Amino acid sequence: MKAAVLYKVGEPLVIDELTLDPPKAGEVRVRVAANGACHSDLHVMTGDMRMPLPIVLGHEGAGIVTEVGPGVTSVREGDHVVLSFAPTCGVCSFCTQGYPHLCETRPKTLGTLLDGTTRLHKNGTDVFHFAFTASFAEETVVPESCAIKIRPDVPLDRACFVGCGTMTGIGAAINTARVQPGSSVAVLGCGGVGLNVIQGAALAGARQIIAVDLVPQKLDLAKVFGATHCVNPTQDDPLTAVMDLTGGRGVDYAFEVISTPKTIELAFKMTARRGVCTIVGVSPEGARISLNPNVFTMTEKRLQGSYYGSTRPRIDMPRLLDLYMEGKIKIDELVSRTFPLEGVNEAYDLLRQGSVARSVIKFF
Ligand SMILES: NC(=O)c1ccc[n+]([C@@H]2O[C@H](COP(=O)([O-])OP(=O)(O)OC[C@H]3O[C@@H](n4cnc5c(N)ncnc54)[C@H](O)[C@@H]3O)[C@@H](O)[C@H]2O)c1
Ligand SMILES: [Zn+2]
Ligand SMILES: [Zn+2]
């Protein structure tokens, strides 16, 4: 089967023929219908996120189950699924507390399935799986808990976004930060994930949602997703602008959805007393932030991270798709371009240039 493989950091992905082993016990084989081009894969391509190579990237996918391994009970052949990149065991301390995205049952190895081996090979050599999903590929094998059954009437080239950007963004606002009705919010970075933080904040009833991005088209889209104010740092100082818009107090909730130390520090600065600043961006390894600890003491501000929108995949993903089908959340507006697998490098060139919110790779 065909897949997009990263052989070397800094080089384009290679569209290659790979072999895929059948699913082992507790695994599911999925024919991938569509996969979105998220920035996290780009972090691997640039070396900001280190992964074993060669690797099949892609972690924002949806498709149809074609085969299940022994013991699989939650899906069967023909089911439509969103691919989750957070395997869950259902019984560990975090799963049972309602935080399955932080499940303790992870292999010690990077780039493998749960048993520490790969199902992907090229001429007998192992090829690694990014994020348990490896869905820039015609087919993939994933742990059962990563194949989330969804209603069959959702177009799969829209459902795939619930596999990362839509879930991560809306979940960061609603599940992690628990944005309150009537509150004020600032979102730094309005790419595929940031636009969904905006959408989540609007869904939660925030009164004021301030979008910050360098690209004017992103700010236009931010308005479509619910932003009430837009700030372009190439024109206005974002800290001054946010302070002016909030009567000098700062926002109740700030979100950093870019991934630079400077923008994390800035997001923290624009957070009000007792407010919460949430880091969603994934920074390059070795990055460090610098904050004055007394600010925590004197203002009771909090700084936290959000992984995968604190998703409970089997509850939140089908729920988001119900909202989409009822016209209550936007996914179509996120998609700027559609490519075949051969267009994956062009999709990432566009993401690098900042000219698209999301592209989708469509297999069928
Ligand atoms: N926490 C998680 O679980 C999780 C999941 C998915 C993605 N992510 C991370 O979230 C981040 C965003 O992902 P994305 O796919 O939306 O990326 P993206 O490239 O689509 O969006 C980034 C946006 O930030 C803007 N930007 C860049 N520098 C800026 C600056 N100095 N000031 C203001 N705006 C600036 C860009 O114009 C762009 O619109 C990435 O780091 C990604 O790895 C995290
Ligand atoms: Zn992602
Ligand atoms: Zn668990």
Q: Helical proportion?
A: 25-40%
Poorly predicted runs of 5 or more residues: none
CATH topology descriptor of the largest domain: Quinone Oxidoreductase, Chain A, domain 1
CATH-derived architecture of the largest domain: Alpha-Beta Complex
N-end to C-end Cα span: 14 Å
The assigned structural class equals alpha/beta
Provide the gyration radius in Å: 20 Å
Number of domains: 2
How do the SSEs run, as a string of H and E? EEEEHEEEHEEEEHHEHEHEHEHEHEHEHE
Number of helices: 11
Bound molecules: nicotinamide-adenine-dinucleotide, zinc ion
In terms of topology, how is this protein built?
Elements: E1 2-6, E2 14-17, E3 19-20, E4 27-36, H1 39-46, E5 55-56, E6 61-68, E7 80-83, H2 93-97, E8 120-122, E9 125-129, E10 139-143, E11 147-149, H3 156-159, H4 165-176, E12 184-188, H5 192-203, E13 208-212, H6 216-224, E14 229-231, H7 238-245, E15 251-256, H8 261-269, E16 271-279, H9 293-299, E17 302-305, H10 313-325, E18 335-339, H11 344-353, E19 358-362
Parallel strand pairs: 5-9, 12-13, 12-15, 13-14, 15-16, 16-17, 18-19
Antiparallel strand pairs: 1-2, 1-5, 3-8, 4-6, 4-10, 4-19, 6-7, 7-11, 8-9
Helix pairs in contact: 4-5
Bound molecules: nicotinamide-adenine-dinucleotide and zinc ion (2 copies).
Write up this protein.
The protein has two domains: 2-163 and 330-362, Alpha-Beta Complex (Quinone Oxidoreductase, Chain A, domain 1); 169-306, 3-Layer(aba) Sandwich (Rossmann fold), CATH 3.40.50. The longest helix has 13 residues, at 313-325. The protein is built from eleven helices and 19 strands. The strands form three sheets. Strands 4, 6, 7, 10, 11, 18 and 19 form a seven-stranded mixed sheet that branches. A six-stranded mixed sheet has the order 2-1-5-9-8-3, with no helix packed on it. The protein is α/β, with parallel strands linked by helices. α4 (165-176) packs across α5. The protein is globular. The protein has helices at residues 39-46, 93-97, 156-159, 165-176, 192-203, 216-224, 238-245, 261-269, 293-299, 313-325, 344-353, and strands at residues 2-6, 14-17, 19-20, 27-36, 55-56, 61-68, 80-83, 120-122, 125-129, 139-143, 147-149, 184-188, 208-212, 229-231, 251-256, 271-279, 302-305, 335-339, 358-362.
